[in-house]
């Protein structure tokens, strides 16, 4: 099997599962307040609290003045799993195959915070051994699902005029490419909880892809 054939088969399989995922696992946005950011722990406190000694496990995500959330992983063989607990984010397993990080949350739970993220904000990921990666948000994508209840829906960019994307192209747009983090949740509009998709993308901070675990 050639490399190109293997990649093509992986993309088809991945995009099919992704299409099923994005059409099923969202709820309406809860409009209550996001909470008092004054109660957030310092970054050092948060990083220490989520460590478990596992160098390979992504354990937490921190955005100053916004949120400090532990990360849970999807169970093996269950790419559609998303935590039902508020105050948690789920790591989307499939993007890891391409060297990237996908972070999922229902938009009535922790996903409601994703709508407050902005270009230029710093995102810090904490691993089980205390290692830290630093990213900066550089892109926010909002797409309308043209067939919201279909696992094969196409997607139209809500903010600029561009070609409509297939489910496979949408997955590649959000999760392929150089190292990055993608926050994903759903956009509720016109009474339809699956009307659209939000992707917030952050790339490594220049010269600071990894920083010392004692950084504050």
As a percent range, the share of helical residues equals 10-25%
Largest sheet geometry: 8 strands, mixed, barrel
Along the chain, the helix and strand elements come as: HHEEEEEEEHEEE
| Largest beta sheet: strand ordering | 1-2-3-4-8-9-6-5
Decide which structural class fits the backbone.
alpha+beta
* Rg measurement, Å: 17 Å
Helical segment tally? 3
**Could you tell me the mean pLDDT?**
83
Total beta strand runs? 10
Uncertain runs are 1-17, 19-36, 212-216
Task: Provide structural commentary.
This protein has a single domain, classed as Sortase (Sortase, Chain: A, Beta Barrel). Helix 1 crosses helix 3. It has 3 helices and 10 strands, in the order ααβββββββαβββ. It is 18% helix and 31% strand. An 8-stranded mixed beta barrel has the order 1-2-3-4-8-9-6-5. With 216 residues, the protein is an alpha+beta fold. Strand 3 and strand 4 form a beta hairpin. The protein starts with a helix and ends in a 5-residue tail after the last strand.
Brief description of this entry?
The chain has helices at residues 3-24, 43-50, 167-175; strands at residues 58-63, 67-73, 89-92, 101-104, 122-127, 132-145, 155-157, 181-189, 192-204, 210-211. It is of the alpha+beta class. The radius of gyration is 17 Å and the shape is globular.
